[in-house]
Amino acid sequence: MSAYSLTKTRFKEGVWEGLLAADSGAPTPEITVDFDGRPVRGVTVTETTEPGRWAVEVPVPQEAICDGVQTFAIREAASDEVLGSFTLIAGEALGDDLRAEVSLLRAELDMLKRAFRRHCLETM
């Protein structure tokens, strides 16, 4: 389990914003965000005035703004643990659309596959 917790604060003008919290004295974490199996560029983690708190900003890439369901997975780089995620749905969306959940499950499955492959390599 990660020592960090992430809470969404807002999503405005194409930038997802959140607050990352940890015990005071914890080092500034390295955050990665994946979209469609690729890293998102321009992610920033900025220390706030409170110890153990950081503001996280994730700019939504232009190629993610399209019809369908787009899921972003936010991870702590050191442990590769998913801290949070957000989903964009554009175009015709159904009332009880499960595509966002399936997309998130795919992202988590990809993370598990990477961890399993890394484990297999380390135990050989």
Jot down its keywords.
four-stranded antiparallel beta sheet; alpha+beta; Immunoglobulin-like; 8 strands; 124 residues
Report helical residue fraction: 10-25%
CATH class: Mainly Beta
Radius of gyration, rounded? 16 Å
Q: Let me know the largest β-sheet.
A: 4 strands, antiparallel
Tell me the distance between the termini.
25 Å
Q: In what order do the strands lie side by side in the largest sheet?
A: 1-2-6-5
- Sketch the topology as an H/E string, one letter per element: EEEEEEEEH
Give the DSSP E fraction (strand runs of 2 or more residues). Answer: 35-45%
CATH level-3 fold name:
Immunoglobulin-like
Number of helices: 1
Note down, in words, how this protein is organized.
This protein has one domain: Immunoglobulin-like. The chain is built from 1 helix and 8 strands; from the N terminus they run E-E-E-E-E-E-E-E-H. The protein has a 4-stranded antiparallel beta sheet, with no helix packed on it. Strands 4-3-7-8 form a 4-stranded antiparallel beta sheet, covered by helices on one side. It is α+β, with helices and mostly antiparallel strands and 124 residues long. It has one helix at 99-122, and strands spanning 5-12, 15-21, 31-35, 38-39, 44-47, 53-59, 68-76, 81-90.
